[in-house]
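Thread: Newbie trying to understand structure tokens

Hi all, I'm a second-year student working on a class project, and my supervisor (Dr. K.) asked me to get a predicted structure for one chain before our next meeting. I've only ever worked with sequences, so writing a 3D structure as a token string is new to me. If someone could post the tokens and maybe explain what I'm looking at, I'd be very grateful. Here's the chain:
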Amino acid sequence: MNAQPSILVVDDEPNNFDVIETFLHNEGYELNYASSGQKAIDRLDTVQPDVILLDVMMPDLDGLEVCRRIKAQVRWQVVPIIVVTALTAKEDLARCLAAGADDFISKPINGMELRARTRSMLRIKQQYDDLQSLLQVREDMVHMIVHDLRNPLTSVLLSTEMLRLPGLSSEKQQKKVEQIAIAGSQLQSLIDSLLLLAKLESGKMTLNCTEIDLAQLCMAAVTDLEAIAAQKQLRLLAQLPDGGEPVTVDVPVFRRVLDNLLSNAIKFAPRKSQVLITTDYLESGEAIVRVTDSGPGVSEVLKQHIFERYEIGTLINGTSQIGLGLAFCKMAIEAHGGQITVEDNQPQGTVFSILLPRLAT
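---
Reply by user tm_fold:
Sure, no problem. This is what the structure looks like when written as tokens:
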């Protein structure tokens, strides 16, 4: 629905429009007027109404026929039509509903009733628009997930076919096996992130927190992703000082956060550059994990939305970008009582920082 709801008033008497305009003056609506049924139909694309107030008794094309013609068009079927009529017999009102009207108001118009019925129809239209937006998001998500799953799956299938070729050297066989293992890990990571995100979002996940050495956990993530970084000739570096007190986290969930941040950094970092993960301990008793890359960075505008679902920071050709990883990271870190932020790396790139209580709840 438009930011300012659009109301189309269809009546052959201009004075009736003036009355409606007076009653709806302070409601914040954009009022549009059509002096005949045909003019109303012709103006639908221009006005794009959220609600139509339609007079029944009009010459040439009466309100019932206008209603039928509007509702016959798929695009406008969902727009509520309130019939404004002097007819009061139940048979007449039944004819209005049969023609496709969603509600009716009897003449003379009562201002309070007009405002109430208009708001009611606008709520219905808003609910429909919200549902359509949700369905579009889900459709987009399905396309992105399929795209993300297809890339590593294609790698698995091609590598498997290569292994079946006769005369393949042991060195090439080993390389193909490693590619299959990497692609399988990518598939598993994506599926696990989707499942964990759904549980976190539904509030059905209970964190199973245990004490862990933060440096060891970060180092394990670096070790597991080194092969993927090597494919882009990237150096995956870690600066993890010893001596830090243990932190309390749900290890599988927090490890998934680290994997997502490091995978993103690898994805966007230029070839032959480096990705750095560091830990630091504050006097306040908090721990910080930073993942730094020298990629294209994130604009100031996108920084406000980068942790939302399906938000894509920078589009890169040939790079799979589903827009769910950072949303999961935010929900997971906040579930631990921490914070995740993004800032610029100088002179180029991005720094994602996790502020984590040592005794997360």
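A couple of things are worth pointing out once you decode it. Confidence is low (pLDDT under 50) at residues 311-322. The chain has three domains: 6-109, 136-202, 210-357. Feel free to ask follow-ups in this thread.
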